[in-house]
């Protein structure tokens, strides 16, 4: 499915970073090691690399990741690219200064498994940045998964991210204008977590 979605020359979700990530980007120290989950065509990873971060982009789509590599080349930066299925991906142990999850919508069991690794995978002082659609997004129809099981709620995330200090966790509606894939008002949940 994702290979087909990314097959064209255009960037489905654009080439500019997610607005929520952009607002948090100054929190990462220069040279920080950051993992971008479900990074697709690379817009967020490339943006962070342009800011001097050491970025790994992981996604299951080789087509999307090839476009991520081309985007990085066009912006004069390098990112590490890793093709993997996040359903059985290991985040490692105290390996990352930051983990970024922007619209990383997985089946519930896979999502819980992934999120339950976040605390251990971050170094002390590491940051977790997430924005995802909530089930209310189905009523808006401006992007995102086709069913509520693939979306997230604050309550679920508080449980799944146990151990992290949640500096921010909020449900908001905001304009999400990111390429042709996200085009309008979005019902999202936003998380900024810290490993104390």
UniProtKB/TrEMBL annotation:
Protein keywords: Methyltransferase, Transferase
Pfam families given for it?
Methyltransf_25 (PF13649)
What organism is listed for this UniProt entry?
Saccharospirillum salsuginis
Q: What is this protein called?
A: SAM-dependent methyltransferase
Which positions fall inside the Methyltransferase domain?
34-126
Gene Ontology biological process: methylation
Listed Gene3D superfamilies? Vaccinia Virus protein VP39
Which Gene Ontology molecular-function terms are recorded?
Answer: methyltransferase activity
Show the taxonomic lineage: Bacteria, Pseudomonadati, Pseudomonadota, Gammaproteobacteria, Oceanospirillales
